[in-house]
Amino acid sequence: MNLLPWGGPTARAATALNVDTSEIFNPVIPAMVAGIVWVLLVSFWIGRKEKKRIGVADIEYDLQTELSDEERAMRRPKLFWFNLILTIITIVALVKVWLPLPIIFMIAFAVAVIVNYPRPDDQMEQVKSQAVGMITVVSIIFAAGIFTGILSGTGMITEMANSLVNVIPDGAGGMMGIIVAVTGMPLSLLFTPDAYYFGVLPIISETAAAYGVLPTHVGSAAILGQMTTGFPLSPLTASTFLLIGLAGVELADHQKFVFKWAFGTTIVMTIVAIITGVII
Fold first, then answer.
1. Most buried pick, 16, 135, 142, 150, via CB within 10 A?
2. pLDDT at residue 192 is higher than 90
3. Cα 223 from chain centroid?
4. How many CB atoms within 10 Å of residue 161?
5. Which residues neighbour 191 within 8 Å (Cβ) at sequence distance 6 or greater?
6. Could you read off the pLDDT of 12-44 as tens digits, one per residue?
7. Which 8-state DSSP code applies to residue 18?
């Protein structure tokens, strides 16, 4: 689900390549659906294996006892259908690009916070709770823009691309999209999303352009693996350590088990992307 237009990888790829997120994301929707189906099938198969291994255990779970007082205060069960419809309309608007993505989010958030929290104090509390994440993202985008601007303005990207072109066999140059898609997931173990999308991807795109491969194809290929399917096992993200901490497993064991399934997801999506003409 990290492929979504408002997710980190897609937003970074679009910013780095100076294209709209819809140009990168919309073509890969069939591949994304195929990836989801693959994940569900794998989950079912693993679940069946674990059921045979450990049997069936009775687990009692009470949502009310698990929630904190603040989480209970935030719940709005009577507005479930309104919030569901608003969410669906927002997602459709984002995918169809009825308006620029930031404007859609602003309108949806304004409607949601006014309806769900009529009191001004509660509305301000919700704005504050979301502000920390937004400031972080905005800071990253500004910093990445400066970084990309330096690389472009000084001609560094062009020169690095020229060097890369010289080492790529002539027969493989036209397959840059496929190469990017297949290598993206393993590179999640080496590159942070900022380093890959703002440092490596523009160079790859410039190189691919020499062989007639469009930047949008390179961008679509990149999000099929780098910090999407590779996100849950990258040692460069805090979420990975939160995940293994909650599950009580070692990072090495987690990576050994997950790698083949995550890489398999990339391969499935890449095959569908090639069939649908998204990447070449």
1. 16
2. no
3. 7
4. 19
5. 199, 200, 226, 236
6. 899 889 888 889 999 999 999 999 999 999 999
7. T
Residue 151 — very low, low, confident or very high, per pLDDT cuts 50/70/90?
low
Spatial separation of the C-alpha atoms in residues 225 and 229, rounded to whole Å? 5
Q: Rounded to whole angstroms, how far apart are CA atoms 279 and 5? A: 18
User: 212: part of which helix (H) or strand (E)?
Assistant: none
Contact 202, 16 (CB under 8 A): yes
Q: What are the backbone dihedrals phi and psi of residue 6, each rounded to the nearest 5 degrees, phi first?
A: -95, 10
- Is there a contact between 173 and 275 (Cβ–Cβ < 8 Å)? no
The dihedral over CA atoms of 271, 273, 277, 280, expressed in degrees to the nearest 10, equals: -70
Q: For residue range 67-116, what is the model confidence (pLDDT) as tens digits?
A: 777 777 778 888 899 999 999 999 898 878 788 878 998 999 999 999 99
- Per-domain boundaries in the chain: 8-47+74-275
Closest CA to 264 of 233, 218, 238: 233
Residues in the chain: 280
Which of these, 193, 255, 256, lies nearest to 11 by C-alpha position?
A: 193
Which residues are within 8 A (CB) of 130 and not within 5 positions of it... i.e. 6 or more apart? 109
Position 76, amino acid:
R
Instruction: Scan for tokens 């169809």, then name that residue.
Output: 96
pTM over 0.85: no
- DSSP state, residue 41: H
